[in-house]
Amino acid sequence: MGLALRNILLCAGVAYAVPWTGTANDQKPLDPRPSREGALKIESPPQKPNIIFILTDDQDIEMNSLDYMPFVQKHLLDKGTLFRNHFVTTALCCPSRVSLWTGRHSHNTNVTDVNPPYGGYPKFVSQGFNENFLPVWLQQAGYNTYYTGKLFNAHTTKNYNNPHVKGFTGSDFLLDPWTYNYLNPAYQRNQEPPIIYHGQHTLDILIDKANALLDDAIASEKPFFLGVAPVAPHSNVEGDISDINEIDQVKFSEPVPLKRHAHLFPDAKVPRTPHFNPDKPSGVNWIAERPQLNKTWVDHNDYYYRQRLRALQGVDELIDGIFKRLEENGQLENTYIFYTADNGFHVSQHRLNPGKECGFEDDIRVPFIVRGPGISEGAISKVVTTHIDVAPTIFELAGIPLREDFDGLSIPLEKLKQERKRHEHVNVEYWGFAVEEGSYGGTLFWNNTYKALRIIGENYNLYYSVWCNNEHQLYDLTSDPYQLRNIYPGYADHDSSITVLGAPLTRVIDRLDSLLLVLKSCKGTVCVKPWEKLHPDGDVETLPEALQKEYDAFYKHQESVRFDRCEAGYILDAEGPQDALSYTRHGIHWSHWV
């Protein structure tokens, strides 16, 4: 050992081993163990937690699908926390997934559809996100990253290598046009060519691939992220859904369960809630024109519902297998497990045949369960959370500084009895078409572009939306939880005597519309604290505070949310006003208003 290094170690109080060159009778070398006093304690940093993220496709929470998944109940609901007010911000798979993995709203990713030119994997790549999304960031923070199942739509057997998806240590992706073909799926592993598994069920294949990737992740002895994205309970699809020009030729049918589950739940039916095939139409635009479903459709939709529940049994088995592997390998206590869906789903509610894409609760509210160190067991949280909050949450768990371009706020996972103050709002947005699914489906509704606001607080629970044809919806879910009475002025269910928080509807609508005006084009922290944009003095943080009469004139002079025309994607000059006025107390100055 060099003298300089020896002196450095001695000054640091660290004992060191000297090579033994003497005999047994000679003096022994220094004890290599650090002394109790003055020693520099060298400790390994704590292991970063592992993260497993299970993402189902089109799974509902409002139709009770979790009640039919015993392993989800055993491993996740009983041992973790269900976030009951968790929402997606775009009720369509590809835009929702891009928002999930980037922490940005769809109006900031500009991935707004499942297909080019407005969405899909090619749009994800062209927007620069292949080098700038969650797995890339996690790798930079020292994680190994793995993924199997569906990533994005229009990720195909033709473009999978143009370019390859970045950011994954190991991957095995489902690919279009076979993504939703339960018995003929195409998977593509790492940099290898795709393989079509003719006659094999996609869920059995996915279970094997997920287990193999989990084994690799555990063997790496590094902190890992594993994403598992089964296609269930999405419709079975035959045809090229990745080509917008062929979309009307695509055949949708019921999900296909594994044979061992095909006999289950013979008496299950869509819950007969008040909004199940109601006697009066609800909603606006094309939804208001839907006829009441006849018996043929009702029976078909009940069968479709049962097939969804049956298909989810393969996902349930997948969950059980993951937990067994974690426990057998001693990894369970250092792993956070997330369970959610890319969007919700409706079946017969509001007279709608199977599908999503709408702003109703059924489509935007999804399962969201988290289990892991410090997470309350068997708990239900009522804080308002969204998919935009997921990336910031994973950053916080992994000890990574938050990005300034995140539009969300990390979810309070620990000590839920002392939940941090959170926002009350959800920004919801959609562009393009809606489609009916199922064997009798296939109808497209092209004018399905809208902006919406979901706001939940003490003594208020509201949904407000503006469609691209400038029709409006306003539902008070406290008195109308199934969204059957549109109380916006000018519609049949409007009643001028209705109040919210003691204020007349006109005053409430002024505030909701201004808040939506901020949110529909917000970026970064403005998306988390939109009231600060309207009230930069910081004296308004909630709807009740905004309802004070002194602000009436200000809100009356605010621009209203409106569209200049309907478009299938995010085209700025069709989006109407973009900038909101701000109120300050400096001489009651309305900034930016002339």
Description:
The protein has 594 residues and is of the alpha+beta class. It folds into 2 domains: 50-427, Alkaline Phosphatase, subunit A; 458-591, no CATH class. The chain is built from 15 helices and 22 strands. The protein has helices spanning 3-11, 70-77, 93-102, 106-109, 120-126, 134-140, 202-219, 295-328, 361-364, 390-398, 505-519, 525-528, 530-534, 543-546, 552-556, and strands spanning 50-56, 81-87, 144-149, 170-174, 186-189, 195-196, 224-229, 236-238, 251-253, 335-341, 368-371, 379-386, 425-430, 434-435, 444-445, 450-457, 460-467, 472-476, 499-500, 503-504, 582-584, 589-591. The strands form 6 sheets. A 10-stranded mixed sheet has the order 6-5-4-3-7-1-10-11-2-12, sandwiched between helices. It has a 4-stranded antiparallel sheet with strand order 13-16-17-18, with helices on one face. A hairpin with a 5-residue loop joins β5 (186-189) and β6 (195-196). α2 (70-77) crosses α8 and α7 (202-219) packs parallel to α8 (295-328). It is globular. Residues 1-44 have low confidence and may be disordered. It catalyses: an aryl sulfate + H2O = a phenol + sulfate + H(+). Keywords: Glycoprotein, Hydrolase, Signal. Its EC number is 3.1.6.1. Belongs to the sulfatase family. GO terms for molecular function: arylsulfatase activity; glycosaminoglycan binding; N-acetylglucosamine-6-sulfatase activity.
